[in-house]
Amino acid sequence: MNYPHPIIAREGWPFLAIALILALGATVWCAFWSIPLWIIFVFVLQFFRDPGREIPQQAGAVLSPCDGRVIKVERRQDPYGQREAILISVFMNVFNVHSNRSPMDGTIQKVQYFPGKFVNADLDKASTENERNAIVLKSAEGQIVTFVQVAGLIARRILCYVKEGDNLTRGQRYGFIRFGSRVDVYLPLTANVKVSIGDKVSATTTILAQL
Fold it and tell me: Please, where are the H alpha helices in 31-105?
């Protein structure tokens, strides 16, 4: 759900508090041995950063729902929207921003959660075997875009704050995945893809495709 950007994602506040308390306690006890704990604190701080983003306003633009690297652009069956589609997969490492944002304006037709495995999110089978959460979104013009949060080898928690019937606006924050994963985006076959395998993309600011 939308909220004023606090720079650090709310999902990280408990982790930051614990890391800070441990680091401060170790510093009081022995400054030298506290160094590893301060490194952990800095890592947690950067992982949960959640900066505001500029939102492109081009009509029909499908924005990237996450930060990361494009690892797949191919024609594939969309198992959630029951159609042939263009699949764009974006892999997120532990140094990417992990806040997930809506790729376009629309109404949620379906939200489906699937428990599963935690194999490396970079592998092809992660899309169908890993824990995942799929959202099917329909625009006012009738275009369907499906985007799927996929857990990874380290990621153990998918968070989704929306439900069927909710309206999303492009760039709206709708979820979070902890500690590395990927997001699959299924587009209509008529979409004009704007990215290639290997491209680095940013949530909201990068246009994946034009409908």
Answer: 35-47
pTM of the model: 0.85
Please report which residue ranges of the chain form alpha helices under DSSP H.
Answer: 13-29, 35-47, 126-129
| Superfamily per CATH, domain 61-210 | Glucose Permease (Domain IIA) (2.70.70.10)
State the pLDDT at residue 124. 61
Comparing C-alpha atoms, which of 32, 143, 11 is closest to residue 83?
Answer: 143
Q: Is 180 within 8 Å of 154 (Cβ atoms)?
A: yes
Of 24-28, 29-33, 177-181, least confident by mean pLDDT is 177-181
The catalytic site residues sit at: 181
CA distance 137 to 16: 33
Q: Looking up tokens 């699949």, which residue turns up?
A: 87
Which amino acid is residue 185, in one-letter code? V
Whole-number pLDDT of residue 178: 76
Q: Would you state the torsion angle of the CA atoms of residues 47, 53, 55, 56, taken in this order, to the nearest 10 degrees?
A: -90
How high is the pLDDT of residue 48? 85
Taking the C-alpha atoms of residue 9 and residue 203, their distance in angstroms, rounded to an integer, is 14
Q: Where are the domains of the chain?
A: 7-50, 61-210
pLDDT exceeds cutoff 90 at 131: no
